[in-house]
């Protein structure tokens, strides 16, 4: 913590904001979309060399944000200044469609930083002279960061969909197995960061339920399209300038619950194998060794094979432990955001086709404009977004939510809390949110 404060006082982040090298991001190679299949080369590509410069700066920003609790606003202000100074690069990373380990590592770091620094309340901490015009420009930058982060949920919100992008060949060996683990961890980290960001935006900008800032429209079409009889794995990606529907939250909630049990079983099996390495079949020992040492496994002794197998199992156990923690966090934040949105839409939202719609719409638009930095986007028709909600939209939301948030999903969530969350500090948090959501869906609107 003391080191982070010294770095803040010395103005390291301010100096990084002035560095022009971060604006020189090379164009992505279209042949590298599935970059892990490219043969390794001795000389790094321009993108790899650029990342050797960018990633340490992002890690430094992340460390300062997480270490300087006493001066968090000052740290967040300096980091936000860094993001805005290099906004073209930041937006290019957020828009990048590459699914290589390097690109996902960039996104994981960047979304973690934005979730803590890209908040409207941080603008007052910027070390710049702010007039009304420049304030709108800064709000515009934050609005774009927010929209693009929300857009990432459509890409990374379902792990079964993204498995298409990872490997079409399951029989990967050596370094590719390690890359596969890194990619899976990075994708879950990105989802966790975006959900943390959504939670922070709602808590900071929504002092009451009646004046909630809704980040998602009252549409569950995403989860209906993807969960229907014909599971549409090619569900359209929502453009970043449009707010996604609440369905992506329920879809992410379901996928995270499924992923949790998959990781939990894998973690338990790996622990059992680690405790009984000597009893494992020779073929399984060889497979574990090949993920650490792709060539020459047959030439080493049995004792050395056991050492390599243990090393792989320990790495796998640690990887699954991180994934379990991320899934648990994603589930908790998804439930929180779903609850807050349902609370607003089902209890406090005045439909545009009601008798009081004219006055309610004006009041709501005014209050939202004060709170929501999305409204500063000049190319967005804000009034056609969240404020135009009809009675039919609300009735449809309630009907779809009752079906999507069914008994089987609720049981899964409560089982997860019993298996995992009971040993953590937030025991009964999931149970309380499930109970509140269930109560909201039983309410009949008059």
TrEMBL record:
Keyword Flavoprotein, does the record have it?
A: no
Instruction: Please report the organism this UniProt entry assigns to the protein.
Output: Equus caballus
State the taxonomy lineage: Eukaryota, Metazoa, Chordata, Craniata, Vertebrata
User: Can you name a GO cellular component term?
Assistant: nuclear pore
* Principal location: nucleus
Q: Which InterPro entries match?
A: Nup186/Nup192/Nup205
Any idea which UniProt keywords this protein has? Answer: Nucleus, Transport
Where is this gene product found? Nucleus
Q: Specify the protein name.
A: Nuclear pore complex protein Nup205-like protein
Query: One Pfam family, short name please?
Result: Nup192
Family affiliation: Belongs to the NUP186/NUP192/NUP205 family.
Keyword Transport in the entry? The reply is yes
